[in-house]
Amino acid sequence: MSKKKKLFIVITAVLILCIIAFLVVLFVKIIPEYREREDHKQAVKQYRDAKFAVYERENEEFDDYEVDVAFLGDSLTDMCDVNKYYPEFVTSNRGIGGDTTFDVENRLELSVYDLKPKVIVMLIGANNIESMFDNYENLLKGFKQNLPQTKIVLCSLSAMGGELWGSRNQIACYNNVRIKKYAAEYGYEFVDLFTPLFNEKTGEVYDGLTIDGGHFTHEGYLLVVEQIKPVLKRLLNV
């Protein structure tokens, strides 16, 4: 057998092995991961659509300014049983897990403009902590323009912990300074959630206040409510 033929056979064998390896990766890893991502996207869409349907029904049920407080935000709001923690107020939960400041901006009309609550409590930014100020002020301007009679409460980012969230505390501190500054500029209320949640000795959120370093336990929500409720009582004269 000539050297050229042997070389051809070797190259062909290598190519075949590469194709087989690619097909294995394709069918074992790439396609399942793609399907998983698509399933996740579909599940998220279905969840958001269901939330929007609830918002539409509530917006039709309530007349302007019948709702005392609308809570606007991401999963930290979405997972909060507002009826349980704020029983003295007529409340509406307008939080959606996974939302960024951009997601909230895109749904302001349905979430709060059409509802016209007396007060909005907004806690948002953890899911896009490094880009949240690219449009954060748009939210504030939107409130001014579309809800001039509504009182706005801006919550700071909360303290975090663990491998996933713990490294973000320094950024959160910096961002909270800007949130507080915006609140002063626009005449909005500011509530500091970071300080009471933050353990200076460990540099992370206090133990027992979150389930994963980011999302609150019942004890965590109690502490958060403790910071927010006095402000609501003052704004609503309760």
Summarize the model shown.
With 238 residues, this protein is an alpha/beta fold.
List the helices and strands and how they pair.
Layout: H1 3-61, E1 69-73, H2 75-78, H3 82-85, E2 91-95, H4 101-106, H5 108-113, E3 119-123, H6 136-146, E4 151-155, H7 162-165, H8 169-186, E5 189-191, H9 194-197, E6 198-199, E7 204-205, H10 218-236
Parallel strand pairs: 1-2, 1-3, 3-4, 4-5
Antiparallel strand pairs: 6-7
So, CATH architecture of the largest domain?
3-Layer(aba) Sandwich
Summarize the main sheet. 5 strands, parallel
CATH topology of the largest domain: Rossmann fold
Query: Please, what is the average pLDDT?
Result: 88
CATH class of the largest domain: Alpha Beta
- Termini distance? 96 Å
CATH superfamily of the largest domain: SGNH hydrolase
Strand order of the largest sheet: 2-1-3-4-5
The low-pLDDT segments are none
Shape: globular
Number of β-strand runs:
7
What's the assembly state of these chains? single chain
Structure description:
The protein is of the alpha/beta class and 238 residues long. The chain has two domains: 61 residues; 173 residues, Rossmann fold (3-Layer(aba) Sandwich), CATH 3.40.50.1110. The protein is 57% helix and 11% strand. It has ten helices and seven strands. The chain has a five-stranded parallel beta sheet with strand order 2-1-3-4-5, sandwiched between helices. The chain is globular and about 55 Å long.
Defining key terms:
single chain; 238 residues; alpha/beta; Rossmann fold; two-stranded antiparallel sheet; 10 helices; 57% helix
